[in-house]
Amino acid sequence: MKSLTLYISIICILLALQSCRKNANSNSDHLVFRYNESANIQTLDPAFSRNQAILWPCNQLFNGLVQLDDSLAIQPDIAKSWSLDSTGKTYRFILRNDVYFHAHINFGKDSTRAVVASDFTYSFDRLLAAKTASPGAWILQKVARYTAVNDSVFQVELKEPFPAFLGLLSMKYASVVPREILEDNQHDFRSHPIGTGPFYFKFWEENIKLVLRKNKRYFERDQQGNALPYLESVAITFLPDKQSAFLQFIQGKLDFISGLDPSYTDEILTDEGQLQEKYQDRIQLVTGPYLNTEYLGFNLETPDAAIGDKRIRMALNLGFDRHKMLLYLRNGMGSARVKGIIPEGLAGYKADNGVVYNPIEAKALVRDFVRETGVKPVLTLSTNASYIDIAEYLQREWQKIGVEVRVDVSPPATLRQGIATGKVAFFRGSWIADYPDAENYLSLFYSHNKAPNGPNYTRYDNPDFDRAYRASFSETKPEKRALLYGQMDEFLYRDVPVIVLFYDRVARFSQKNVSGLGINPMNALQLKRVKKD
User: Fold this and answer.
1) Average pLDDT value for residue range 108-132
2) The pLDDT value given to residue 5
3) Looking at residue 422, what DSSP letter applies?
4) Of 118, 145, 155, 306, which residue is most buried, by most CB within 10 angstroms?
């Protein structure tokens, strides 16, 4: 760390010396947004946008029927309006008539054409096709049928009411794509995508650089009526080493980095999670809730008596200081105001009457269990190497309340397999929202979703929870649905099928001359409103 600090200090001196020597390209530098992607991008096809590395460029290249704003509210995209019938099952989308595909020779003499409703029929058919083998086909599993009524009306009928459906349609899997390009066997859509987004594909040397350019026919405008996007270009590099990318950011060669890596966390942040003073004049930090809940799960069908006893689960939940854990192990990046599984940023989250560190009550619960059973609780916590520091912290804290915890470290794939098959009784887990609705989290505890039939890896089974879960599907009023979500979260808090460690937070660092970047609980990157002074 000392060598990194010295190196960065030298860079800062060089930057100061060079501040008056602008190169010839500086006049256009404010029109190019640059970031690094440390993970490899396998494709730019939205049907395969399964991770953040792929999602971020796809957000710039494609559009769907609806989109999310930074508050995760559903907003119009290609669909300018929509309606839902009285059954809660049939959506009718009215499309804009000024959305055009990016230019390509396959569109004929005009090199482009307007998007029509039949393009969504084709795009959904492709998403579901076995030949495509898209990991996103599941977003349409509740759809009975869909049809293009005419060029400007697209209709979707669900098998049953599902209020979170619009959230599913906001995912990049549901993007509109052109038949003329995808059915051309000479065109590789994976590496040369054609969409409708604010930027179009220009150049990609895989693992080296990806360049997107401004789409001058893009349909969205800002509140003043100015055309979006403001930038002329987006340049993405692929340095696999995050510390190297951080050094490029400090040198001003990148405009933005997201998240924290142990190689530079202490260099840029104080112990309290604030920006180090030496960077405050040229770097800006924005943090906010991130829809990722980090937890420890119990397999409630295990024969282990301690795990099956709610007193021990509750004692573990009360028996460690989350604030101290986040302060010393994550530089304060996370929220300790936990209760159930629903994180900050979603309807149904309630911080009141949540988990409070209480070692006295935790010890009393353990003593009561030992007195009644004559058994001293000994548990094995299964985790991976990335969480060994947190696991060892918990191990020490829980020893103080009378619970011995052994830590078993496995490769991530082995751990996932053990959780899915029920071979581990106490395990580290996390859940990142696929779509912005609490149902995404609560589905983990619906008894009909018990593994291997679904993601209920705790094997939690509560008839009252199940009734509220089913009732939420037919409740179309958001405020009433939020109450149902809150009730289900309360059941989880009381029954303790999981110990919520913390709700995650996202950190975004950008150069001082960047504005309009925003932040949102999905950590989605949207560059159409970004400006560089």
Assistant:
1) 96
2) 59
3) T
4) 306
What is the average pLDDT score of the chain? Answer: 93
User: pLDDT digit string (tens) for 416-469?
Assistant: 999 999 999 999 999 999 899 999 999 999 999 999 889 999 999 999 999 999
d(CA 207, CA 236): 10
Find the helix packing angle between 310-318 and 359-373, rounded to 10°. Answer: 160
Q: Provide DSSP, 69-97.
A: -TT--EEESSEEEEEE-TTS-EEEEEEPS
Best CA proximity match to 231, nearest among 33, 511, 526? 33
- The answer to whether residues 459 and 299 touch, using CB atoms and an 8 Å cutoff, is yes
Q: Which helix (H) or strand (E) holds 150?
A: strand 143-150
β partners of residue 148: 154
Q: Which residues of 357-393 are buried (b: 16+ CB within 10 A; e: fewer)?
A: bbbeebbbbbeebbeeeeeebebebbbbeebeebbeb
The phi and psi torsions of 112 (rounded to 5 degrees) equal -160, 175
Q: The tokens of 236 are what?
A: 């993405």
pTM of the full structure: 0.87
Q: How far is the C-alpha of 292 from the C-alpha of 205, rounded, in Å?
A: 32
Q: Which helix (H) or strand (E) element contains residue 405?
A: strand 404-409
pLDDT at 21: 44
pLDDT tens, residue by residue, 275-331 = 999 999 999 999 999 999 999 999 999 999 999 999 999 999 999 999 999 999 988
**What pLDDT band is residue 20 in, cutting at 50, 70 and 90?**
very low
Answer yes or no: are the C-beta atoms of 36 and 254 closer than 8 Å. Answer: yes
120: enclosing H helix or E strand? helix 117-128
**Res 12: pLDDT:** 52
DSSP state letter for 253: S
For 129, phi then psi, to 5°, come to -65, 135
Nearest to 522 by CA among 262, 335, 258, 333: 258
Residue 332: which residues within 8 A CB-CB, separation 6 or more? Answer: 271, 272, 273, 326
Measure the CA–CA gap between 338 and 488, rounded to whole angstroms.
Answer: 15
CA-based angle 385:426:328, to the nearest 5? 50
- Please state, in angstroms and rounded to a whole number, the distance separating the CA atoms of residues 103 and 276: 46
Any idea which residue has 């109450």 for tokens? 483
